[in-house]
Amino acid sequence: MLVDDDTTVIETLEYNLKRHGFNPVSFGTGSGAIARLEQTDPDLIILDWMLPDMQGPEICRLLRERSVDSPILMLTGRSAPTDIAHGLSCGADDYLSKPFSIIELMARIAALLRRAKQSGFVSRLVVGDLILDADAVRVTLRGVEVELSPKEFNLLKVLMENAGRTLSIETLLNQVWGLDFTGDTKTVAVHMRWLRQKLEDDPKHPKLLETIHRAGYRLNRPEIHSEETPHSCGEVT
């Protein structure tokens, strides 16, 4: 989630995030972002300090009071130590001053997501219209709940955690069935077929759960068609 009222910053961030496989949703006001957070749980929030209706630290405080635990990266031209301390004390997880390098921004995003995953911070996985809530043990597709067996749920969870990556049958067996599994390796193919029947529009021609010949399986991120932006992607002011 991007929260910034500067269209140049938003366009540049959207362009670069899409290139790296993210699906950004942008808001120009804090109130608009807060309202949306009642319906969704983003992996990460990039938040500007100065917004038309409220300031970034105030938004951070409100989100934490509402138990929104998504990592928050704050962007701002204010770089005084007291400002940084204020933003972090209100609930931000990291702080980046403008102008900033896109390379540094992407590195900070990767670090925040990595720490969140290692700490069990992210309980909800989102890939396009597919949402898996690990705490509630619930999967929805386009807002409709999908009933899965425990093994189907765990298999989907591993695939969503590695969206865009090809996982071998051995890796899936180890992570879902355990290292001591001695059954037929074809069980992965069987469970993949069952998942496709429940998640694919056309199970015979799957687009989400793809078989990679002689390599394994991959859960694909939705295709994002982005236009070239006229703004520089090196520095944002």
Number of helices: 8
How many domains? 2
**Helix content range:** 25-40%
Q: Could you describe the largest sheet, including whether it forms a barrel?
A: 5 strands, parallel
**Strand line-up of the largest beta sheet:** 2-1-3-4-5
Provide the CATH superfamily of the largest domain. Answer: Response regulator
Q: List unreliable stretches of 5+ residues.
A: 224-237
Report the order of strands and helices: EHEHEHEHEEHEEEEHEHHEEE
Mean pLDDT: 84
Shape: elongated
Amount of beta strand: 15-25%
Distance between the termini: 19 Å
Would you give the CATH topology of the largest domain?
A: Rossmann fold
CATH architecture assignment of the largest domain = 3-Layer(aba) Sandwich
Tally the beta strands: 14
**Which structural class fits the helix and strand makeup?**
alpha/beta
Radius of gyration, in Å, reads 20 Å
The level 1 CATH classification of the largest domain is Alpha Beta
Question: Any overview of this molecule?
Answer:
This protein is an alpha/beta fold and 237 residues long. The chain has two domains: 2-121, Response regulator (Rossmann fold), CATH 3.40.50; 129-219, Winged helix-like DNA-binding domain superfamily/Winged helix DNA-binding domain (Arc Repressor Mutant, subunit A), CATH 1.10.10.10. It has eight helices and 14 strands. The strands form four sheets. It has a five-stranded parallel beta sheet, sandwiched between helices. It has a four-stranded antiparallel beta sheet with strand order 7-8-9-10, covered by helices on one side. The longest helix is centred in the middle third of the chain and has 17 residues, at 102-118. Mean pLDDT is 84; it is low at 224-237.
